[in-house]
Amino acid sequence: MEDANTYRQALDDFRRARSKAAMQRFWAGIKGRSLDLLPYDEISTKLRAVSQTDRGVRQVPLKDIIGSVSRIQDFDRNFLPLRDDDMDRWAKVKTAMTSPLAQGVPPVSLYQIGDAYFVIDGNHRVSIAKEMGMETIEAYVTETQTKVPISSTLTSDELILKTAYVNFLEDTRIDQILPGVDFSLKLVENYPLLKEHITVHQYYMGIEKERPVSFEEAAIHWYETLFFPVVASIESSGLHHAFRDLTLTDLYLWLLDHQQTLQQDLGIALKPENVLDYTADKEGIKAEAGWSPAEEQIMQILLRDDEHPESPYQDCLFQHVTVALSDDDPNWIALEQAVLVNRCQGGAIRGVHVERADTQKPDEEIEDYKRRFDERLSEVGMSGKFFLRQGEPASALLEFSLLSDLLVLKLSHPPATSLMDRISHGIITILQQSRRPVLFVKDDPLVVSSILLPFDGGQPSKEALYIAAYYAARYGCQLHLLLVTKGSDKDEINRYYVQTYLERLGVKADYHQGSSESFTADVVGLAESLAVSTLILGGYENTSIFDRVFSQSIDEILAQVTIPVMICQ
Fold first, then answer.
1. Which is nearest to 129 in space by CA: 96, 83, 97, 87?
2. CA–CA dist 184, 148 (Å, integer)
3. Could you give phi then psi for residue 391, rounded to 5 degrees?
4. CA angle 266, 269, 273 (to 5 degrees)
5. Distance CA 431, CA 414 (A)
6. CA distance 68 to 28
7. Is residue 464 a contact partner of residue 536, using CB atoms and an 8 Å limit?
8. Minimal CA–CA distance to 94: which of 9, 212, 199, 185?
9. pTM of the predicted model as reported, rounded to 2 decimal places
10. CA 262: distance to chain centroid?
């Protein structure tokens, strides 16, 4: 009697499940979505199943069961029944699962791929367990390893992407060359383009090394020198948060395509990382908090076990330099300073003249600017290009500098001391907002030969340390360190930090001690007594209005010294 009542109730439950299935499929059709169960055989074949492992009996989340081996036409993605003629069997199985007089049912049998499961035996039991609101079901699990994993949210469209990825891996063997690296894309058509990036890299490596280069060797070098640095920059920039529908590899390809477009539009070579900063700025995306690239490089040296680690200064630091060309600098000493500071093979100088809307020059004067710029670069054997920009000078220079490594300015009017003047001063804006080092030249351009570096342990001073050490390690410049004490335990830590870093690079330096209370006087006095050619400073510690107005040490130094000053942000 109990079984009969349970059976009749199960029939009613089946009818409700069928009605629910019909309604859900109706709405899914309107929205263009599929509610079909996914076929195990097709997926395991497309994803290149390589092995199977018995995982025994476990409790499996019902939400993660997304497909079946043989009953994909009988149930939908939610395991609601789709066939009216299945009513009797469905009701009998539910009776066996729920009747007090029944003996129960055995565990179901499932295949597992990644986080997803597929029914081998027990489709009705899964259907009924879901209808009853159960969260898990007991199952014999056999795990299938495939070329790429899948999740329980896998759709038919995503299966197409996974299949394309598998084909890419088999074609390139990149998963064997670089195991554990995710090169998946959301745009199927980009897989041939990704392979092309590697083969082009292979071609140019062969030319550079004057020998045949294998695809494997090229892939590893491409990953280490191009792909990984760009992807790391994308992650730190926050750009991937703004484009959540794309993978990091998608963004890598998008960025390099954007780089090519900008290069064609501007007629200059651009670095991917600079294009990234420029793009992020245009999108209003702020970089994520954390260590700067300079800090990371310093820590890598400090944490290395080998006594003499490889120098981080293998590449030229200031290959592309932006210099402001203005009427306030009639002798163009900023350009002369840019010529002296750019020691990179293949380096380039971008001369930028900014005009306000109300002070536009005649075309012939602009042409004279360009001719004069081109002639000077030709005289010193350097490449570059002249650009005319409209708008507010500080903003225009900041935007363009993102596409370069360094901004060089003539300091004609140092920041004023009055509160309102400081707030409105263009130099303050540049110092606050620049994402590139800024080199100010006041009187005479000088070769970077001897450097004074004040160091207080703050992040900006670590940026300055990285650049000062670059000149000392790469060009043999004399380095003087002013250790700024604050009367705390951190003073000794800062000394150890600097000394250890420089010693591990093989850089010798003279050490001097100053106080935070007399910072400006110490810096100015030491710069004069040592007769250094360049002063390298960390910039503002933060961007608060308080910092802008009341932290005047940098401004006072700019007003008093006559040598070039590099501010590192």
1. 97
2. 9
3. 130, -160
4. 105
5. 12
6. 20
7. yes
8. 9
9. 0.76
10. 19
CA dihedral 547, 548, 553, 557 (to 10 degrees): 160
* Residue ranges per structural domain of the chain: 2-152, 173-282, 320-568
What's the CA gap between 237 and 231, in Å, rounded?
10
Cβ atoms of 473 and 508 within 8 Å: the answer is no
Distances 554 to 453, 454, 523 between C-alpha atoms, Å: 13, 11, 10
Q: By C-alpha distance, which of 375, 398, 396, 399 is closest to 386?
A: 375
CA distance 43 to 68: 11
User: From the centroid of its chain, how far is CA 287?
Assistant: 9
Torsion-angle region of 525 (φ positive above 0: left; ψ -120 to 50: alpha; else: beta): alpha
* CATH number of 320-568, picked from 3.40.50.12370, 2.60.120.20, 3.40.50.2300, 3.40.1550.10: 3.40.50.12370
Burial 307-342 (b: 16+ CB within 10 A, else e): eeeebbbeebbbbbbbbbbbeebeebbbbbbbbbbb
Which helix (DSSP H) or strand (DSSP E) does residue 440 occupy? strand 438-441
Instruction: Please give the Cα distance from 442 to 263 (Å, whole number).
Output: 32
The answer to whether 233 and 272 have CB atoms below 8 angstroms apart is yes
Contacting residues for 569 by C-beta, under 8 A, at least 6 apart: 431, 434, 435, 436, 437, 438, 460, 463, 539, 540
Handedness of CA 87, 89, 90, 91 (dihedral sign): positive
- Going from the C-alpha of 441 to that of each of 8, 401, 446, the distances in angstroms are 92, 17, 9
Taking alpha carbons only, the member of 157, 155, 148, 163 closest to residue 114 is 148
Q: How far is CA 256 from the centre of its chain?
A: 13
DSSP one-letter string for 170-195 = HHH-HHHHSTT-----S-GGGHHHHH
pLDDT along the chain (569 residues), means of 10: 77 90 83 86 90 94 94 91 91 86 82 94 93 93 92 86 93 94 91 95 93 95 93 82 86 92 91 86 69 76 72 81 89 92 85 84 88 93 92 89 93 58 62 88 90 90 92 92 84 90 91 87 92 89 44 79 90
Which residues on neighbouring strands pair with residue 36, listed in sequence order? Answer: 76
